[in-house]
Amino acid sequence: MPQNVVANTLRIPAFPRAAGGGISGGGGSSSGRQQSPRRNAREYAATAGRAANLARALRAGDREALERAGLDFDALQAMPSRAEMVRTILEVVCEAHTSSDIPSEEQREIASRLLDWMLDEEQNPTPPTPSEAAEYAIGIMIAEMFLSEAGEFTSNGSVSREDFVNEVYEAAANLASRAELTGTTTGAEAIEAAITRGLRFLRRTYASETQ
Question: Which of 3, 60, 111, 203 could form a cystine bridge with 51, CB 3.0-4.6 A?
Fold first, then answer.
């Protein structure tokens, strides 16, 4: 995936996490409200870009590109499952994200899901185009940002946590598909607006479940 496409597509604002009532991390304020993390758009773009590039290299059999990243094509191909491939590549993609803060965890989840999707040859017989990969990544971002806010959600009589997460991802993917990305360029303002609208829609839709 061309880096400029990734950077433009994933140039998102520093959305703060909504305060979670009743939960405070170590060293949190006495009010019990979580400190909002700041999301660096360049870091998110770089992480998604590395994941997409390595997934594309594996699909294309580009041994040199994989070797430059410290990966071995034959070793990856010999792995018993796609999940093993994803885990191995993810360690390279997110080697700099050793902390457990919210942005790092979100980036690992985004990269993991993007890798799994791009390496799924049944779902994607041919490697996804840059704009398709970017659209998918945007959907994951919308979902992950919202799920960070909804961390207090627990299963209830009508919906389980698993169902809730699946519904969020499905809704986020539908919202991301409206971004109307092109193969070579994207409108940063349109992407920002799509993510903002997506988060607003999910917050409104699931307000009762996440309060």
Answer: 111
Question: What are 70-88's pLDDT values in tens digits?
Answer: 999 999 999 999 999 999 9
Which DSSP category does 37 fall into?
Answer: P
What are the extents of the domains in the chain? Answer: 3-10+35-210
Per-residue buried b or exposed e for 97-117, using 16+ beta carbons within 10 Å of the residue's own CB: beeeebbbbbbbbbbbbbbbb
Among 61-75, 121-135, 148-162, which is the least confidently predicted range? Answer: 148-162
Total-model pTM: 0.72
